[in-house]
User: Which sequence fits this backbone?
């Protein structure tokens, strides 16, 4: 019995699909099938109940999974205990959604490194679903994001809330308003982020609460291109007041209804222990925002 067999088994037990599991762990499907057949042969029991394309654990498989997860957790903890010598050193693999990269993340990292100057960071940006999958697969340690898309073995904790505004060109009739009911924008053309992004999901929900489906004429992959098209007077959008986006050409108008906010939090893999450096960063963030809420 080899360690990689147990890791393959754990992944397959949770995903319950040979093709999807092989993609998730970057192993060919035939190699995965051979490995599981060898493991079952060595144990002398069937671990999976194969029914057409559907895959379920047998009673023996469920019992074995409990021990495998405990064992792999302890092995991972042992590896990190001997390779992470001290919380004051090491590298934190931090992921975050793109819209936090211009202000929220840099501020946090700057404040943290005042206390831990020897800790380095490996940074990744992506959409919430991809970030959740990276956490699940152990490719990152922590993620700063809006409410995490539901991904198995990934936990998320609230840190703070951020107001979202109706962003219009300075010459737009809404620009001089102190606030606007979102329903008043029902006939406007919208510039939006692509569907996978949390800000797009929230904007759709807010428009739905206001009683209309937005007329979206362009979908962008980042907030800067979205804001640029608003500056070109091609439409309006819903965004947080990010310092890097503010310009004389744009007006950020408060929305009176519905209440438009997004939650920002920190996510991590609930089944894999953090390194000492990642634990130090997690503790720093949680204490910082716990203190700000008191």
Assistant:
């Amino acid at each position: 019995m080899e360690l990689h067999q147990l890791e393959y088994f754990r992944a397959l037990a949770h995903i319950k699909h040979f093709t999807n599991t092989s993609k998730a762990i970057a192993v060919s499907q035939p190699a995965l099938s051979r490995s599981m057949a060898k493991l079952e042969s060595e144990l002398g029991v069937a671990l999976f109940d194969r029914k057409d394309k559907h895959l379920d654990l047998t009673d023996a498989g469920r019992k074995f999974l409990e021990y495998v997860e405990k064992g792999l957790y302890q092995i991972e903890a042992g590896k990190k205990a001997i390779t992470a010598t001290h919380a004051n050193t090491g590298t934190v693999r931090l992921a975050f959604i793109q819209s936090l990269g211009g202000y929220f993340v840099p501020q946090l990292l700057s404040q943290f490194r005042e206390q831990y100057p020897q800790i380095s960071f490996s940074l990744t940006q992506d959409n919430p679903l991809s970030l959740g999958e990276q956490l699940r697969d152990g490719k990152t340690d922590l993620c700063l994001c809006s409410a995490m898309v539901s991904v198995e073995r990934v936990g998320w904790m609230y840190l703070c809330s951020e107001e979202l505004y109706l962003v219009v060109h300075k010459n737009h009739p809404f620009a001089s308003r102190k606030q606007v009911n979102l329903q008043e924008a029902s006939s406007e053309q919208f510039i939006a982020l692509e569907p996978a992004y949390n800000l797009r999901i929230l904007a759709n929900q807010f428009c739905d609460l206001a009683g209309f489906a937005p007329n979206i004429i362009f979908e962008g992959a980042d907030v800067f291109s979205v804001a640029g098209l608003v500056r070109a007077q091609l439409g309006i959008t819903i965004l947080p007041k990010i310092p890097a986006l503010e310009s004389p050409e744009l007006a950020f108008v408060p929305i009176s209804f519905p209440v438009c906010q997004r939650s920002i939090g920190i996510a991590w893999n609930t089944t894999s222990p953090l390194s000492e450096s990642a634990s130090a960063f997690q503790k720093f963030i949680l204490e910082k925002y716990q203190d700000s809420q008191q």
User: Anything to note?
Assistant: The mean pLDDT is 90. Residues 3-83 form a domain with the Arc Repressor Mutant, subunit A fold (CATH 1.10.10.10).
